[in-house]
């Protein structure tokens, strides 16, 4: 066995790396079928690769305790695999995303690279270990044209581990115990990201990253193999060309379930930014017309798909410094290649010019169900209309099609917001930061159903792991919506359980490059003191983000920093509760002014959803704030230096 080791004499010595090298060297001398360990930079996470009887397996440990037991990993099914050599390397660098939950990200890992002989083919298996997770990737060459590859990975979990998974426009699945999945006949459909709850002190998430590198593999597929009694993931494709690189198979590790949402491992594994000039890519907030149709104002105006309605939206956006206005479906009645037939009530040119004069950028929806304009011309056409972005509906689960749409959008300086069960393209916002958000969730009132406080919290802790979400939180006219005043309100009256403070907190908790606000300008103006929290929130420009409190389906508290200011949002399920918000992250010897946005003693998510209060105070590092929340309620804080 050949062992290649490379050191940079100017780097700090990594003793974990040296230990791994010695173990590999000793193992290599003892036998050909060897054990190959590699540790995280802090030494807490370790992966052991074994090569026995023509198979490669891995096991994942934290502080010596098994998180995933011995599990098979392969790229060519039923082919004898022999590891012939191994090398170790390490990297520690800081990079800056164009926008995101952090202004700087530390890419720090140890990597084991294994040369694998697969009969006539040759492969490299990359095992990259971070302090908060791991990634596996294969590179393969020398195969026969048309060979079927399957990036196969098992997850041999304990029988008492609980799984959670997204469920499209429904509440996420879970908890599903491993020992229950072994026995049930009808297996649930499992989508990424899978969340594994091992105990209160150990949580995993199973997903992929950098699908951009190999879109032909398609989205990772999960299923539970009842014979093997373990979870399995696959990506299949026919091998063509000379060399193939797979996406990364990713396992995130955190003591707290909320930490999975701010984990940067998927971004570190993604291809770096492919756009040379990025100054035109601006995250922000957007008003949105779709949920407002039918809303009647005090002065007798009724919102709809027309020029007058859109002028009102633009005026409010300009007044409140909201960057975008999003025009949704039915602005056109018919589409054929090369032509959109615009509805008679809308003068799109007038609206576009008015928005430009007032410093508001427009995003326009395109629904593929209404006709095929032709993607080769679609994005240049939207650019010619003066649009800053496209909300692309009904893309389908075609990875190559979606990847091409992202790249064509970028060529035409367009942001792209994918809707209606899109591809969960984890990490793509690093590679193409114009991919600003996606509706990989049950967005508020999808299919005219109102989701529950519990399902919101589940999506915030499951769906959000794969990247930015467009969930459409932030309704303020809850009484009117529940009464049925809107054309697009819930089909069942009084089914929307929330409070206005919870709605406000949700706009911060769900990370996105484009926070879509679904209510009417007049609804926000009536509660302008509460809307202040949303108005001041610098979307996508965060320097630091953290989840302070989290429990699946019960509650979540998120804090985000922009320069010296902190924005904190908390929500609870249908049970009222009080959470301790520890301000230990503030700077020493500094006094801060805080504005509280709170439920009142009378607030209730169904009975009295619009009751709230605001107040101000002063806080310092180490203070613990009691966030008192009504059933279905929330709590917000805006903290800035005195």
TrEMBL record:
Glycosyl-hydrolase 97 catalytic domain span: 293-439
Required co-factors: Ca(2+)
Pfam families hit by this protein: GH97_C, GH97_N, Glyco_hydro_97
Protein name: Glycoside hydrolase family 97 catalytic domain-containing protein
GO molecular function: hydrolase activity
Subunit structure, as described in the record: Monomer.
Gene3D superfamilies recorded: 2.70.98.10, Aldolase class I (3.20.20.70), Golgi alpha-mannosidase II (2.60.40.1180)
Keywords from the UniProt entry: Calcium, Glycosidase, Hydrolase
Residues annotated as domain Glycosyl-hydrolase 97 N-terminal: 38-272
Organism superkingdom: Bacteria
Transmembrane segments: none
Domain Glycosyl-hydrolase 97 C-terminal oligomerisation: residue ranges: 541-640
Lineage: Bacteria, Pseudomonadati, Bacteroidota, Flavobacteriia, Flavobacteriales
């Amino acid at each position: 066995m050949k062992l290649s080791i490379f050191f940079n004499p100017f780097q700090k010595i990594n003793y974990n790396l040296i230990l791994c090298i010695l173990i590999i060297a000793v193992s290599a001398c003892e036998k050909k079928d060897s054990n190959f360990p590699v540790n995280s930079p802090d030494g807490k996470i370790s992966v052991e690769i074994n090569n026995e009887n023509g198979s490669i397996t891995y096991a994942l440990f934290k502080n010596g305790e098994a998180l995933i037991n011995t599990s098979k990993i392969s790229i060519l099914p039923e082919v004898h695999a022999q590891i012939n050599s191994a090398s170790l390397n390490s990297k520690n660098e800081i990079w800056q995303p164009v926008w995101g939950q952090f202004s700087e990200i530390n890419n720090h890992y140890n990597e084991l690279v294994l040369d694998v002989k697969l009969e006539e083919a040759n492969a490299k298996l990359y095992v990259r270990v971070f302090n908060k997770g791991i990634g596996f990737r294969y590179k393969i060459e020398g195969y026969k044209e048309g060979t079927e590859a399957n990036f196969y990975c098992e997850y041999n979990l304990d029988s008492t581990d609980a799984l959670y998974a997204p469920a499209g426009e429904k509440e996420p699945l879970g908890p599903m115990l491993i020992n229950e999945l072994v026995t049930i006949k009808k297996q649930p459909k499992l989508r990424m990201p899978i969340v594994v709850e091992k105990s209160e002190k150990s949580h995993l998430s199973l997903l992929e990253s950098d699908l951009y590198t190999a879109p032909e593999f398609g989205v990772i597929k999960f299923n539970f193999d009842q014979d093997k009694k373990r979870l399995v993931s696959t990506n299949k494709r026919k091998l063509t060309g000379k060399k193939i690189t797979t996406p990364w198979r990713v396992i995130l590790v955190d003591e707290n379930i909320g930490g999975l949402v701010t984990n940067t491992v998927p971004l570190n594994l993604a291809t770096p930014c492919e756009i040379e000039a990025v100054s035109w890519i601006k995250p922000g907030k957007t008003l949105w017309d779709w949920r407002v149709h039918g809303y009647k104002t005090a002065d007798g105006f009724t919102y709809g798909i027309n020029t007058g309605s859109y002028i009102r939206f633009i005026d409010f956006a300009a007044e409140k410094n909201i960057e975008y206005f999003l025009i949704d479906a039915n602005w056109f009645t018919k589409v054929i290649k090369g032509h959109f037939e615009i509805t008679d009530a809308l003068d799109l040119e007038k609206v576009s010019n008015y928005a430009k004069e007032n410093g508001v950028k427009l995003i326009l929806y395109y629904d593929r169900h209404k006709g095929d304009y032709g993607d080769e011309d679609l994005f240049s056409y939207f650019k010619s209309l003066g649009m800053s972005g496209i909300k692309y509906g009904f893309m389908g689960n075609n990875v190559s099609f979606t990847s091409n749409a992202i790249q064509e959008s970028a060529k035409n300086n367009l942001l792209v917001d994918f809707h209606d069960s899109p591809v969960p393209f984890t990490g793509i916002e690093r590679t193409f930061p114009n991919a600003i958000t996606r509706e990989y969730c049950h967005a508020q009132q999808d299919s005219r159903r109102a989701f529950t406080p519990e399902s919101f919290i589940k999506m915030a802790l499951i769906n959000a792991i794969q990247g930015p979400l467009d969930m459409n939180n932030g309704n303020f006219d809850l009484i009117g919506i529940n009464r049925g005043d809107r054309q697009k309100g819930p089909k069942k009256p009084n089914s929307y359980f929330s409070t206005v403070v919870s709605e406000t907190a949700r706009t911060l908790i769900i990370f996105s490059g484009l926070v879509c606000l679904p209510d009417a300008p007049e609804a926000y103006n009536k509660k302008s003191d509460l809307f202040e929290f949303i108005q001041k929130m610098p979307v996508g420009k965060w320097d630091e983000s953290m989840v302070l409190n989290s429990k699946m389906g019960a509650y979540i508290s998120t804090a985000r920093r922009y320069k010296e200011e902190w924005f904190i949002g908390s929500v609870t399920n249908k049970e009222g509760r009080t959470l301790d918000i520890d301000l230990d992250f503030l700077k020493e010897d500094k006094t801060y002014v805080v504005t509280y946005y709170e439920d009142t003693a009378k607030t209730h998510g169904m009975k009295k959803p619009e009751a709230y209060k605001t107040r101000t105070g002063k806080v310092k590092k180490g203070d613990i704030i009691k966030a008192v929340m009504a059933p279905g309620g929330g709590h917000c804080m805006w903290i800035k230096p005195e």
